[in-house]
Fold:
Amino acid sequence: MSKRIKICVNTGGGDAPGLNAAIEAVTMAGYNRQWEVYGIKGGYAGLIDTDEIIRLTPEKVDGIASLGGTILGTTNKGNPFKMPIKNAVGEIELHDLSDKVIGNFHRLGFDALVAIGGDGSLEIAHEFAKKGMPVVGVPKTIDNDMGGTVVTFGFDTAISTATDAIDRLHSTAMSHERVMVVEVMGRNAGFIALNSGISGNADVILIPEIPYDIEKVCNKIMENELHGRKYAIVVVAEGARPVDGKEFIKADAEIGREHVILGGVAEMIASEITQLTSKDSRSIVLGHLQRGGSPTTFDRLLALRFGTAAVRAIEDRKFGYMVSLISPNIGLIPLEEALKINKRVSVDGDTVMTARDLGISFGD
Structure:
């Protein structure tokens, strides 16, 4: 590579603590190689409307590793292959703008894109890689459901936030002898519920991977009564479902959006517990609190390691790959291979066994 290297970076999908750290890492690693680094704002929007591209310099990213969110902005509705656009009569139609994105990428003289995102965003990155765009992926998601890596950044902060909330609920649940049902994120993966539930001393943990029987949930709660514990903490993943039903959907998919919006399971479970046990039950939805705030040390460091590894991958021309944590080192895995892995909680794994040995019920 004799000419001056010019790279760009974007963030897509839901926000996660550590995104700014990854942006800082890409910027500094590029700058220290005397490369030019640019930020694409709003996912891929900046490569559709090129006014949304900013030059990233050490001054621009100084100190942002400790900040939550992303200075580049993000979206989970900006798939250039299925971009929703209103037609002349106001109806929404899906258009493929991928060629425009690629054309602008080359016109602006970029040599590589660092795409930071979860499975949806990295699937888009993989589609661009198949069309010849030099892409390196960086995995992030609080859900920890991205294949090909031991863990994603954002997850540790999310479970720390959830655990802190569960810790705080013990005192009020005990004071009022209530059942507190705490709904956490995770979509169809139960990692947040499982890890925060165990760490927060929950009585019941409900995850998508283990369909629950509400009567068995109530049996655990009433069993507490026999041991003098007149309150209970139930942690439920938003994608949890009963043995004879489906997950609870708060809203249907929007045009151009891949996923439905899950939610409402905690309120339903709290109502059912009250009906079956006559105990006062309340539901709490942590929601986007889990996405916000400063990243933990673990997430911050992992994001910095991922970002610098992505720049090294560009230097080695390892395009079409995703950086990943292969403990204890950072490695590379083909994007195609990582996206094929449907990462879910292992129902026979040691973390689930730990919960069972501690007397925690999964409602099964």
